[in-house]
């Protein structure tokens, strides 16, 4: 393991790592990804997307797991061991803590067949701009998170979150408004 894979904010596009990163990104672009300038995607991040758009200066750290149809805005971070799967749109300046799960799909659960045979469906997840998702948080399918939100570490988000809210708990509930200090 390399330091830059876990601390991607230390990435320097003009270093020897820059050439390796351009090669990694070309491979993803050959599969249909759109990748902005100054992006870092750790070589040991599992990126198996049907559709991937990554905005400028966004980074994906070591051992993150990305699948589905994902759109990241500019200046986002996906920290080590985070899982981002399904149909997900993420705005600008979003920080996703380590070990977080953002799951933009769900399993069907008809009682007449085993769950593993039924496939999945997606309502999708939308996350606004300037959002901090604390480590070990879980965001479930169908949720809309406003801009300027803080989701506390370990929170389980099952319902929409308004702009400027600080939420915590399982299930997550609003503690206060960020503008209230």
Automatic annotation (TrEMBL):
GO molecular function: acyltransferase activity
InterPro entries: Hexapep (IPR001451), Hexapep_transf_CS (IPR018357), Hexapeptide_acetyltransf (IPR051159), Trimer_LpxA-like_sf (IPR011004)
PROSITE patterns named in the record: HEXAPEP_TRANSFERASES
Domain of life of the source: Bacteria
Keywords: Acyltransferase, Repeat, Transferase
CDD domains with a match to the protein in the record: LbH_MAT_like (cd04647)
UniProt family annotation: Belongs to the transferase hexapeptide repeat family.
Protein name as it appears in the record: Acyltransferase
Species the sequence originates in: Agromyces allii
């Amino acid at each position: 393991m390399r330091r830059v894979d876990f601390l991607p904010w230390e990435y320097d596009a003009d270093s020897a790592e820059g050439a390796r990163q351009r090669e990694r990104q070309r491979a993803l672009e050959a599969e249909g990804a759109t990748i902005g300038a100054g992006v870092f995607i750790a070589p040991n991040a599992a990126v198996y997307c049907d559709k991937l758009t990554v905005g400028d200066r966004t980074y994906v750290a070591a051992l993150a797991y990305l699948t589905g149809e994902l759109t990241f805005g500019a200046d986002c971070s996906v920290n080590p061991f985070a899982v981002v799967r399904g149909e997900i749109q993420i705005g600008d300046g979003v920080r996703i803590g380590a070990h977080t799960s953002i799951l933009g799909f769900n399993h069907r659960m008809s009682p007449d067949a085993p769950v593993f045979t039924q496939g999945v469906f997606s309502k999708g997840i939308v996350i606004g701009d300037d959002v901090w998702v604390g480590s070990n948080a879980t965001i479930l399918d169908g949720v809309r998170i406003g801009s300027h939100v803080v989701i506390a570490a370990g929170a389980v988000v099952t319902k929409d979150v308004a702009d400027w809210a600080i939420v915590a708990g399982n299930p997550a509930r609003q503690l206060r408004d960020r503008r209230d200090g």
